[in-house]
Design a protein that fits this description.
The protein has one domain (3-109). Helix content is 91%, strand content 0%. The radius of gyration is 25 Å and the shape is rod-shaped. The protein has helices spanning 3-55, 60-74, 78-109. By secondary structure, the chain is an all-alpha fold.
Length: 110
């Protein structure tokens, strides 16, 4: 086993390792980073949506269309779209509970 073979094997292994690290960074870490950034953006948009929903209920349909179409257009992964839709449905359920409690309390006060 000569020195040339040893250096050649070291060169091949280091280049393979660097290729593997760059490949994993390019195809695993960057989409994961975009996924988390999109998740933070969708959480902030859901918070803004809930604020607008409680303050201005007349724009409910417009904000629903915006929040439903936004992840379909800009989503880096389908998992982001599903998590965004799940968050939206949770906030919609909270709004329904909040609105029904207001209606029940107004009927009780009558």
């Amino acid at each position: 086993f000569s020195s040339f073979h040893f250096h050649f094997v070291c060169f091949i292994s280091v280049s393979f390792l660097s290729f593997f690290i760059s490949f994993s960074f390019l195809f695993v870490l960057i989409p994961l980073l975009f996924h988390f950034l999109f998740l933070i953006l969708s959480l902030s948009l859901c918070f803004i949506f809930v604020l607008f929903l409680f303050i201005f209920p007349s724009i409910f349909l417009l904000s629903f269309l915006f929040l439903f179409l936004f992840p379909l257009i800009f989503s880096p992964t389908s998992l982001s779209c599903l998590s965004f839709l799940f968050l939206f449905l949770c906030f919609l359920l909270l709004f329904i509970i909040f609105a029904s409690s207001i209606l029940i309390s107004s009927f009780i006060s009558l």
